[in-house]
Design goal:
The structure holds 2 protein chains of 2 kinds.
Chain A lengths: L6 E4 L3 H11 L3 E4 L5 H6 L7 E4 L9 E4 L2 E5 L4 H6 L1 H6 L1 H8 L4 H6 L2 H7 L5 H9 L1 E7 L2 E6 H4 E3 L2 E2 L6 E7 L6 E8 L9 E10 L2 E10 L6 E2 L1 H7 L6 H12 L12 H26 L1
Chain B lengths: L2 E8 L2 E8 L4 H8 L18 E4 L2 E4 L12 E3 L12 H8 L9 H14 L5 H7 L11 H18 L1
The chains are: A alpha+beta, B alpha+beta.
Chain lengths: 290, 160
Protein backbone atom coordinates (compact mmCIF):
# COMPACT_ATOMS: atom_id res chain seq x y z
CA UNK A 1 0.00 0.00 0.00
CA UNK A 2 0.93 3.66 -0.11
CA UNK A 3 1.56 5.85 2.92
CA UNK A 4 -1.36 7.87 4.26
CA UNK A 5 -1.07 11.64 3.68
CA UNK A 6 1.03 13.73 6.07
CA UNK A 7 2.71 17.11 6.26
CA UNK A 8 6.47 17.08 5.67
CA UNK A 9 8.79 19.42 7.56
CA UNK A 10 12.52 19.78 7.20
CA UNK A 11 14.56 20.70 10.28
CA UNK A 12 17.91 22.38 9.75
CA UNK A 13 19.10 21.76 13.30
CA UNK A 14 18.31 19.80 16.46
CA UNK A 15 16.82 22.93 18.02
CA UNK A 16 14.57 23.48 15.02
CA UNK A 17 13.42 19.85 15.16
CA UNK A 18 12.64 20.15 18.87
CA UNK A 19 10.76 23.37 18.17
CA UNK A 20 8.69 21.73 15.44
CA UNK A 21 7.86 18.75 17.68
CA UNK A 22 6.71 21.12 20.42
CA UNK A 23 4.62 23.15 18.02
CA UNK A 24 3.03 20.23 16.15
CA UNK A 25 2.25 18.13 19.21
CA UNK A 26 1.62 14.42 19.60
CA UNK A 27 0.77 13.88 15.93
CA UNK A 28 4.35 14.61 14.80
CA UNK A 29 7.11 12.05 14.39
CA UNK A 30 10.80 12.38 13.65
CA UNK A 31 11.82 11.07 10.22
CA UNK A 32 15.45 10.00 9.92
CA UNK A 33 16.18 7.10 7.56
CA UNK A 34 12.55 5.98 7.71
CA UNK A 35 13.41 2.30 7.31
CA UNK A 36 11.15 1.29 10.22
CA UNK A 37 8.65 4.14 10.07
CA UNK A 38 7.85 4.20 6.34
CA UNK A 39 7.08 0.46 6.11
CA UNK A 40 4.72 0.94 9.07
CA UNK A 41 3.09 3.87 7.27
CA UNK A 42 2.79 1.92 4.01
CA UNK A 43 1.16 -0.91 5.97
CA UNK A 44 -1.15 1.70 7.57
CA UNK A 45 -0.01 0.65 11.03
CA UNK A 46 1.17 4.21 11.64
CA UNK A 47 -0.36 7.41 10.35
CA UNK A 48 1.42 10.42 11.84
CA UNK A 49 0.05 13.75 10.65
CA UNK A 50 3.47 15.37 10.50
CA UNK A 51 6.98 14.14 9.80
CA UNK A 52 10.00 16.20 10.80
CA UNK A 53 12.98 15.21 8.63
CA UNK A 54 16.25 15.61 10.55
CA UNK A 55 18.67 14.14 8.02
CA UNK A 56 19.57 17.59 6.71
CA UNK A 57 20.59 18.92 10.13
CA UNK A 58 24.41 19.32 10.17
CA UNK A 59 24.58 19.19 13.99
CA UNK A 60 23.02 15.70 13.98
CA UNK A 61 25.16 14.18 11.26
CA UNK A 62 28.36 13.09 12.94
CA UNK A 63 29.76 9.78 14.12
CA UNK A 64 33.12 9.11 15.72
CA UNK A 65 35.22 8.51 18.83
CA UNK A 66 34.47 11.00 21.56
CA UNK A 67 36.25 11.08 24.91
CA UNK A 68 36.82 7.33 25.01
CA UNK A 69 33.31 6.49 23.80
CA UNK A 70 31.58 6.44 20.45
CA UNK A 71 29.34 9.37 19.55
CA UNK A 72 26.59 8.65 17.00
CA UNK A 73 24.49 11.54 15.75
CA UNK A 74 20.81 11.00 14.97
CA UNK A 75 21.45 11.45 11.26
CA UNK A 76 24.32 8.93 10.99
CA UNK A 77 23.45 6.08 8.63
CA UNK A 78 23.78 2.50 9.80
CA UNK A 79 26.15 1.50 7.01
CA UNK A 80 28.43 4.46 7.79
CA UNK A 81 28.58 3.58 11.49
CA UNK A 82 28.98 -0.14 10.75
CA UNK A 83 32.11 0.43 8.65
CA UNK A 84 33.56 3.32 10.69
CA UNK A 85 37.04 2.60 12.09
CA UNK A 86 36.04 4.16 15.44
CA UNK A 87 33.07 1.78 15.75
CA UNK A 88 35.27 -1.23 15.10
CA UNK A 89 37.79 0.04 17.66
CA UNK A 90 35.37 1.25 20.35
CA UNK A 91 32.08 -0.60 19.92
CA UNK A 92 32.64 -3.72 17.79
CA UNK A 93 29.55 -5.38 19.32
CA UNK A 94 27.50 -2.57 17.74
CA UNK A 95 29.24 -3.11 14.38
CA UNK A 96 28.30 -6.80 14.60
CA UNK A 97 24.73 -5.91 15.52
CA UNK A 98 24.37 -3.51 12.60
CA UNK A 99 25.78 -6.00 10.12
CA UNK A 100 23.06 -8.43 11.23
CA UNK A 101 20.26 -5.88 10.82
CA UNK A 102 18.20 -5.69 7.64
CA UNK A 103 19.97 -5.66 4.31
CA UNK A 104 22.73 -3.40 3.03
CA UNK A 105 20.37 -1.17 0.97
CA UNK A 106 18.25 -0.65 4.09
CA UNK A 107 21.37 0.13 6.14
CA UNK A 108 22.45 2.73 3.58
CA UNK A 109 19.34 4.69 4.44
CA UNK A 110 18.49 3.69 8.03
CA UNK A 111 20.07 5.33 11.07
CA UNK A 112 21.47 3.74 14.23
CA UNK A 113 19.81 6.28 16.51
CA UNK A 114 16.51 5.78 14.68
CA UNK A 115 16.62 2.04 15.34
CA UNK A 116 17.44 2.60 19.02
CA UNK A 117 14.66 5.19 19.38
CA UNK A 118 12.21 2.86 17.59
CA UNK A 119 12.91 0.41 20.45
CA UNK A 120 11.82 -2.82 18.86
CA UNK A 121 12.65 -5.41 21.55
CA UNK A 122 13.71 -7.93 18.89
CA UNK A 123 16.03 -5.55 17.05
CA UNK A 124 19.81 -5.75 17.02
CA UNK A 125 20.96 -2.20 17.73
CA UNK A 126 18.98 -1.54 20.93
CA UNK A 127 20.34 -4.79 22.44
CA UNK A 128 23.95 -4.07 21.48
CA UNK A 129 23.69 -0.51 22.78
CA UNK A 130 22.28 -1.69 26.09
CA UNK A 131 24.88 -4.47 26.35
CA UNK A 132 27.84 -2.13 25.96
CA UNK A 133 26.16 0.69 27.86
CA UNK A 134 26.00 4.38 27.16
CA UNK A 135 23.86 7.46 27.10
CA UNK A 136 20.97 8.79 25.06
CA UNK A 137 20.91 12.55 24.56
CA UNK A 138 17.36 13.88 24.30
CA UNK A 139 16.36 17.39 23.34
CA UNK A 140 13.03 19.07 23.85
CA UNK A 141 11.62 22.53 24.29
CA UNK A 142 13.01 22.57 27.84
CA UNK A 143 16.58 21.83 26.79
CA UNK A 144 18.66 18.67 26.63
CA UNK A 145 19.04 15.80 29.07
CA UNK A 146 20.93 12.54 29.24
CA UNK A 147 19.25 9.17 29.73
CA UNK A 148 21.30 6.08 30.64
CA UNK A 149 20.95 3.19 28.19
CA UNK A 150 19.79 1.10 31.16
CA UNK A 151 16.76 3.37 31.70
CA UNK A 152 15.91 4.19 28.08
CA UNK A 153 13.87 1.13 27.02
CA UNK A 154 10.55 0.90 28.85
CA UNK A 155 8.43 -1.49 26.81
CA UNK A 156 7.43 -2.56 23.30
CA UNK A 157 8.37 0.40 21.07
CA UNK A 158 8.29 2.56 24.18
CA UNK A 159 11.15 4.62 25.58
CA UNK A 160 11.83 7.16 28.31
CA UNK A 161 11.48 10.00 25.77
CA UNK A 162 8.88 12.59 26.78
CA UNK A 163 6.41 14.07 24.34
CA UNK A 164 8.14 16.77 22.30
CA UNK A 165 11.61 15.27 22.74
CA UNK A 166 13.84 13.76 20.11
CA UNK A 167 17.02 11.73 20.45
CA UNK A 168 19.82 13.87 19.07
CA UNK A 169 22.65 11.37 19.67
CA UNK A 170 23.71 8.28 21.53
CA UNK A 171 27.11 7.76 23.11
CA UNK A 172 28.38 4.22 23.57
CA UNK A 173 30.77 3.83 26.52
CA UNK A 174 34.14 2.27 25.71
CA UNK A 175 35.29 -0.84 27.56
CA UNK A 176 38.98 -1.21 28.48
CA UNK A 177 41.57 -3.33 26.64
CA UNK A 178 41.08 -7.00 27.42
CA UNK A 179 37.39 -6.87 26.53
CA UNK A 180 35.81 -9.35 24.16
CA UNK A 181 32.35 -9.22 22.63
CA UNK A 182 29.93 -11.67 21.12
CA UNK A 183 26.78 -11.00 19.11
CA UNK A 184 24.63 -13.82 17.80
CA UNK A 185 21.10 -14.05 16.51
CA UNK A 186 18.94 -16.78 15.11
CA UNK A 187 16.52 -16.16 12.27
CA UNK A 188 14.72 -18.29 9.70
CA UNK A 189 16.84 -16.93 6.85
CA UNK A 190 19.98 -14.82 6.92
CA UNK A 191 17.92 -11.75 6.04
CA UNK A 192 14.83 -12.23 8.17
CA UNK A 193 13.93 -10.80 11.54
CA UNK A 194 15.71 -12.41 14.52
CA UNK A 195 13.67 -14.80 16.66
CA UNK A 196 16.13 -14.30 19.52
CA UNK A 197 19.56 -12.75 19.94
CA UNK A 198 22.34 -12.38 22.50
CA UNK A 199 24.77 -9.46 22.89
CA UNK A 200 27.55 -9.98 25.43
CA UNK A 201 30.79 -8.39 26.59
CA UNK A 202 33.32 -9.74 29.06
CA UNK A 203 36.51 -8.24 30.40
CA UNK A 204 39.21 -10.50 31.77
CA UNK A 205 42.06 -9.67 34.09
CA UNK A 206 44.56 -12.02 35.70
CA UNK A 207 42.85 -15.07 34.20
CA UNK A 208 39.40 -14.28 35.57
CA UNK A 209 36.38 -12.37 34.36
CA UNK A 210 36.04 -9.10 36.28
CA UNK A 211 33.24 -7.47 34.30
CA UNK A 212 30.40 -8.96 32.23
CA UNK A 213 27.33 -7.80 30.35
CA UNK A 214 24.65 -10.12 28.97
CA UNK A 215 21.62 -8.74 27.09
CA UNK A 216 18.99 -10.78 25.22
CA UNK A 217 16.72 -9.62 22.43
CA UNK A 218 13.39 -11.07 21.27
CA UNK A 219 12.51 -12.60 24.63
CA UNK A 220 10.80 -9.74 26.48
CA UNK A 221 9.21 -6.32 25.94
CA UNK A 222 12.64 -4.64 26.10
CA UNK A 223 16.23 -5.68 25.32
CA UNK A 224 16.66 -7.72 28.49
CA UNK A 225 19.70 -7.51 30.76
CA UNK A 226 20.42 -10.80 32.57
CA UNK A 227 22.08 -9.86 35.90
CA UNK A 228 21.90 -13.51 37.10
CA UNK A 229 24.12 -14.54 34.19
CA UNK A 230 26.52 -11.66 34.79
CA UNK A 231 26.81 -12.67 38.48
CA UNK A 232 27.80 -16.19 37.44
CA UNK A 233 30.50 -14.83 35.14
CA UNK A 234 32.17 -12.23 37.35
CA UNK A 235 34.99 -13.89 39.29
CA UNK A 236 34.86 -17.04 37.18
CA UNK A 237 37.56 -18.35 34.92
CA UNK A 238 36.51 -17.99 31.28
CA UNK A 239 35.65 -21.41 29.89
CA UNK A 240 32.97 -23.90 28.95
CA UNK A 241 31.87 -24.52 32.54
CA UNK A 242 31.28 -20.87 33.40
CA UNK A 243 29.65 -20.14 30.05
CA UNK A 244 27.24 -23.06 30.31
CA UNK A 245 26.26 -21.97 33.83
CA UNK A 246 25.86 -18.35 32.73
CA UNK A 247 23.78 -19.38 29.71
CA UNK A 248 21.55 -21.47 31.97
CA UNK A 249 21.14 -18.49 34.29
CA UNK A 250 20.38 -16.18 31.33
CA UNK A 251 17.56 -18.44 30.15
CA UNK A 252 16.12 -19.16 33.59
CA UNK A 253 13.25 -16.99 34.70
CA UNK A 254 12.55 -15.38 31.32
CA UNK A 255 9.10 -15.83 29.85
CA UNK A 256 9.24 -15.13 26.12
CA UNK A 257 5.97 -15.00 24.20
CA UNK A 258 5.10 -17.38 21.39
CA UNK A 259 4.38 -16.22 17.87
CA UNK A 260 4.33 -17.65 14.34
CA UNK A 261 8.14 -17.64 14.23
CA UNK A 262 8.75 -19.62 17.40
CA UNK A 263 7.25 -20.72 20.69
CA UNK A 264 8.24 -19.23 24.01
CA UNK A 265 9.95 -22.48 24.96
CA UNK A 266 11.94 -22.42 21.74
CA UNK A 267 13.04 -18.83 22.40
CA UNK A 268 14.18 -19.84 25.90
CA UNK A 269 16.28 -22.58 24.39
CA UNK A 270 17.70 -20.19 21.82
CA UNK A 271 18.52 -17.70 24.59
CA UNK A 272 20.60 -20.33 26.38
CA UNK A 273 22.43 -21.58 23.28
CA UNK A 274 23.07 -18.13 21.81
CA UNK A 275 24.35 -16.81 25.16
CA UNK A 276 26.78 -19.71 25.54
CA UNK A 277 28.12 -19.37 22.02
CA UNK A 278 28.37 -15.57 22.21
CA UNK A 279 30.33 -15.86 25.46
CA UNK A 280 32.70 -18.38 23.89
CA UNK A 281 33.41 -15.96 21.04
CA UNK A 282 33.80 -13.09 23.49
CA UNK A 283 36.37 -15.01 25.53
CA UNK A 284 38.44 -15.75 22.41
CA UNK A 285 38.38 -12.06 21.52
CA UNK A 286 39.14 -10.92 25.08
CA UNK A 287 42.21 -13.14 25.08
CA UNK A 288 43.32 -11.95 21.67
CA UNK A 289 42.96 -8.25 22.43
CA UNK A 290 44.65 -8.23 25.83
CA UNK B 1 -1.91 18.22 1.87
CA UNK B 2 1.24 20.15 1.25
CA UNK B 3 3.39 19.65 -1.81
CA UNK B 4 7.09 20.30 -2.20
CA UNK B 5 9.36 21.44 -4.98
CA UNK B 6 12.25 19.05 -5.46
CA UNK B 7 15.18 18.97 -7.85
CA UNK B 8 16.93 15.68 -8.49
CA UNK B 9 19.40 14.32 -10.99
CA UNK B 10 18.06 11.18 -12.65
CA UNK B 11 20.45 9.21 -14.85
CA UNK B 12 22.52 12.33 -15.36
CA UNK B 13 19.66 14.70 -16.20
CA UNK B 14 18.45 17.35 -13.77
CA UNK B 15 14.68 17.26 -13.16
CA UNK B 16 12.46 19.51 -11.06
CA UNK B 17 8.99 18.56 -9.89
CA UNK B 18 6.33 19.35 -7.37
CA UNK B 19 5.49 16.30 -5.26
CA UNK B 20 3.03 15.42 -2.54
CA UNK B 21 4.73 14.53 0.79
CA UNK B 22 3.45 10.97 0.66
CA UNK B 23 4.72 10.27 -2.87
CA UNK B 24 7.23 7.42 -2.67
CA UNK B 25 10.42 7.79 -4.68
CA UNK B 26 9.40 4.65 -6.62
CA UNK B 27 6.01 6.11 -7.55
CA UNK B 28 7.66 9.43 -8.40
CA UNK B 29 10.03 7.71 -10.80
CA UNK B 30 7.30 5.58 -12.39
CA UNK B 31 4.31 7.91 -12.50
CA UNK B 32 5.76 11.41 -12.56
CA UNK B 33 8.98 10.84 -14.49
CA UNK B 34 7.75 7.89 -16.58
CA UNK B 35 10.70 5.62 -15.81
CA UNK B 36 8.82 2.36 -15.28
CA UNK B 37 11.92 0.20 -15.20
CA UNK B 38 11.90 0.55 -11.42
CA UNK B 39 9.49 -2.14 -10.23
CA UNK B 40 7.35 -2.10 -7.11
CA UNK B 41 6.90 -5.41 -5.29
CA UNK B 42 6.18 -5.47 -1.59
CA UNK B 43 6.08 -1.74 -0.78
CA UNK B 44 7.53 -2.49 2.64
CA UNK B 45 11.24 -2.68 1.93
CA UNK B 46 11.52 -6.45 1.93
CA UNK B 47 11.86 -7.57 -1.70
CA UNK B 48 14.29 -5.15 -3.33
CA UNK B 49 12.50 -4.91 -6.70
CA UNK B 50 12.42 -1.10 -6.34
CA UNK B 51 16.18 -0.76 -5.70
CA UNK B 52 17.77 2.36 -7.19
CA UNK B 53 21.19 3.88 -6.62
CA UNK B 54 21.54 7.23 -4.88
CA UNK B 55 25.06 8.61 -5.05
CA UNK B 56 26.06 5.11 -6.17
CA UNK B 57 24.50 3.46 -3.10
CA UNK B 58 21.56 1.05 -3.28
CA UNK B 59 18.36 2.10 -1.53
CA UNK B 60 14.75 0.89 -1.49
CA UNK B 61 12.75 3.51 -3.39
CA UNK B 62 9.41 2.19 -2.04
CA UNK B 63 10.30 3.12 1.54
CA UNK B 64 11.72 6.52 0.76
CA UNK B 65 9.62 9.56 -0.01
CA UNK B 66 10.47 11.53 -3.14
CA UNK B 67 10.75 14.66 -1.02
CA UNK B 68 13.60 12.99 0.93
CA UNK B 69 15.51 12.59 -2.33
CA UNK B 70 15.60 16.34 -2.98
CA UNK B 71 19.08 17.15 -4.28
CA UNK B 72 19.99 13.49 -4.79
CA UNK B 73 21.82 11.91 -7.70
CA UNK B 74 19.61 8.95 -8.67
CA UNK B 75 20.45 6.12 -11.01
CA UNK B 76 17.71 3.80 -12.30
CA UNK B 77 17.92 0.68 -14.45
CA UNK B 78 17.24 2.77 -17.55
CA UNK B 79 20.76 4.22 -17.21
CA UNK B 80 22.43 0.90 -17.92
CA UNK B 81 21.68 0.81 -21.63
CA UNK B 82 20.82 4.25 -22.95
CA UNK B 83 21.27 3.05 -26.57
CA UNK B 84 20.67 -0.19 -28.41
CA UNK B 85 23.53 -2.05 -26.78
CA UNK B 86 23.01 -3.82 -23.48
CA UNK B 87 25.24 -3.26 -20.45
CA UNK B 88 27.67 -6.14 -19.76
CA UNK B 89 25.59 -7.00 -16.67
CA UNK B 90 22.39 -7.20 -18.70
CA UNK B 91 24.18 -9.30 -21.35
CA UNK B 92 25.44 -11.65 -18.65
CA UNK B 93 21.96 -11.98 -17.09
CA UNK B 94 20.59 -12.88 -20.54
CA UNK B 95 23.41 -15.30 -21.31
CA UNK B 96 23.15 -17.13 -17.97
CA UNK B 97 19.37 -16.98 -17.75
CA UNK B 98 19.69 -14.86 -14.63
CA UNK B 99 16.05 -13.91 -15.05
CA UNK B 100 12.80 -15.56 -15.95
CA UNK B 101 9.78 -13.36 -15.24
CA UNK B 102 12.02 -10.29 -14.97
CA UNK B 103 10.25 -8.68 -12.05
CA UNK B 104 13.27 -8.60 -9.74
CA UNK B 105 15.72 -7.86 -12.55
CA UNK B 106 15.96 -4.05 -12.36
CA UNK B 107 16.75 -4.22 -8.65
CA UNK B 108 19.09 -7.19 -9.11
CA UNK B 109 21.00 -5.36 -11.85
CA UNK B 110 21.51 -2.19 -9.82
CA UNK B 111 22.47 -4.05 -6.65
CA UNK B 112 24.89 -6.18 -8.69
CA UNK B 113 26.36 -3.08 -10.31
CA UNK B 114 27.02 -1.62 -6.86
CA UNK B 115 28.66 -4.88 -5.73
CA UNK B 116 30.95 -4.94 -8.77
CA UNK B 117 31.79 -1.25 -8.42
CA UNK B 118 32.71 -1.85 -4.77
CA UNK B 119 34.74 -4.94 -5.54
CA UNK B 120 35.42 -5.72 -9.20
CA UNK B 121 37.03 -9.00 -8.15
CA UNK B 122 34.21 -10.32 -5.97
CA UNK B 123 33.88 -14.01 -5.13
CA UNK B 124 30.81 -16.22 -5.61
CA UNK B 125 30.25 -16.10 -1.86
CA UNK B 126 30.37 -12.31 -1.83
CA UNK B 127 28.00 -12.12 -4.80
CA UNK B 128 25.58 -14.52 -3.09
CA UNK B 129 25.70 -12.59 0.20
CA UNK B 130 25.46 -9.30 -1.71
CA UNK B 131 22.30 -10.13 -3.64
CA UNK B 132 20.65 -11.65 -0.56
CA UNK B 133 19.05 -8.19 -0.21
CA UNK B 134 16.90 -8.88 -3.26
CA UNK B 135 14.27 -11.56 -3.77
CA UNK B 136 13.93 -13.67 -6.90
CA UNK B 137 11.26 -16.36 -7.06
CA UNK B 138 12.26 -17.79 -10.46
CA UNK B 139 15.94 -18.50 -10.79
CA UNK B 140 16.97 -20.01 -7.47
CA UNK B 141 19.70 -17.32 -7.51
CA UNK B 142 22.45 -19.59 -8.86
CA UNK B 143 22.17 -18.24 -12.41
CA UNK B 144 22.18 -14.69 -11.08
CA UNK B 145 25.40 -15.36 -9.16
CA UNK B 146 26.88 -16.87 -12.35
CA UNK B 147 25.84 -13.78 -14.31
CA UNK B 148 27.28 -11.35 -11.76
CA UNK B 149 30.64 -13.14 -11.72
CA UNK B 150 30.77 -13.32 -15.49
CA UNK B 151 29.85 -9.65 -15.85
CA UNK B 152 32.46 -8.69 -13.27
CA UNK B 153 35.11 -10.58 -15.24
CA UNK B 154 34.05 -8.87 -18.44
CA UNK B 155 33.99 -5.44 -16.82
CA UNK B 156 37.47 -6.06 -15.38
CA UNK B 157 38.71 -6.99 -18.85
CA UNK B 158 37.15 -3.82 -20.29
CA UNK B 159 38.78 -1.72 -17.58
CA UNK B 160 42.14 -3.41 -18.11
Amino acid sequence: MKSPPFEYHRAGSAAEAAGLLGELGFDARILAGGQSLIPLMNLRLAAPGHLVDITGAPDLAGCGANGGGLHIGAGARQRTVELHADTLATAPVLADAISNAGQVPVRHQGTVVGSIAHADPSAEMPAAFKAQGGTVTAQGAGGTREIASEDFFEGYFTTALEEGELVTAVTVDAWPAGTGHGFLEFSVTAESWPIALAAVLIHTSGGAIDRASVVLGGVAEVPLRRPEAEAVLVGAEPGAEAFEAAAEAAATGIEPLSDSFGSGAYRKKLARVLTRRALTTAAERAGGDA
Amino acid sequence: MSTHDITVTINGAMTSANVESRRSLADFLRHDVGLVGTHIGCEQGACGACTVLIGGRSVRSCIMFAVQADGADIQTVESLAPGAEMHPLQEAFRRHQGLQCGFCTPGMLLRSLELINDNPDLTAEEAREGISSNMCRCTGYQYIVDAVLDAAAEMRAEEG
